[in-house]
Design brief:
mainly alpha; single chain; about 250 residues; 8 helices
């Protein structure tokens, strides 16, 4: 019985989530969020290695890992094409693909890797997307991109959208530019953090088999969140450049 209590205490320690505790590195006057930096660089390393393995010996008839990565590329291309348009989507595939793959790998590494085994002076390693700083940064990057896309495609005429179809909608259209990054960041952050908390509580209460279906559901949810973020990012870019082809046709 004592051994069962000891085993249960180890599981509860492993499941405990240190929410709000963080490790910071001081660089001059800057305070860097060490946990997010460490896992983010691990994610980038995983993506770099996967890219290297898929492209080191490219075959005309793909197979194995090359085939898997080409399927991922086609999947991202379909997202961009459906949301931005067949004529305009190609330059935006790298951006949409980067959002999707980075968030996808962040979410899955957070769910699959036992980060609790890595001891830190404070806090613990986790998915970068479970931290609001990461999701806000990604959402603000999307905002910058769709502004840049609209201005690049339509020039100052892009700002006409704020008073269309009537100037009465100006405040609402401006407010929309603030709600887009808010919804993107809080949706991703809330879902990933909630999944980690639910799994942690279930492991704490029922430490054997009950959490496994929830963990499997969490993997599915993590993939869906990456898809939603990438799709919305592409949709916002497509909305920003909408009408660009018609304007060129009129000038022509």
């Amino acid at each position: 019985m004592i051994s069962n209590l000891i085993a249960h205490s180890h599981l509860t320690d492993f499941a405990a989530l240190e929410v709000g505790k963080h490790l910071y590195w001081s660089v001059g006057n800057l305070e860097l969020h060490a946990q997010i930096l460490i896992v983010s660089w691990i994610v980038m390393g995983v993506l770099a290695i996967a890219t290297f393995l898929a492209t080191r010996n490219i075959q005309r008839v793909p197979g194995g890992f090359q085939n898997f990565m080409e399927y991922a590329l086609e999947f991202v291309q379909d997202i961009a094409k459906n949301q931005i348009g067949e004529k305009e989507y190609r330059p935006w595939v790298p951006f949409v693909g980067t959002f999707f793959l980075f968030i996808f790998v962040c979410n899955w590494l957070g769910a699959l890797v036992p980060w609790k085994l890595v001891e830190l002076p404070s806090g613990e390693l986790a998915a970068p997307t479970s931290d609001i700083n990461t999701t806000v940064a990604l959402a603000l990057l999307v905002s910058v991109l769709y502004f840049w896309a609209g201005i690049s495609a339509r020039g100052l005429g892009y700002f006409k959208r704020y008073i269309e179809p009537t100037p009465i909608l100006l405040p609402i259209n401006i407010l929309e530019d603030f709600t887009k990054p808010l919804s993107l960041s809080f949706r991703l952050f809330g879902n990933i953090l909630a999944d980690e908390l639910v799994v942690g509580v279930l492991v704490l209460l029922v430490p054997l088999f009950v959490p496994l279906p929830v963990m499997a559901l969490g993997l599915f949810t993590s993939a869906i969140q990456a898809l939603i973020f990438a799709t919305l990012a592409a949709a916002y870019i497509g909305e920003a450049i909408e009408g660009h082809g018609e304007e060129e046709h009129e000038h022509g």
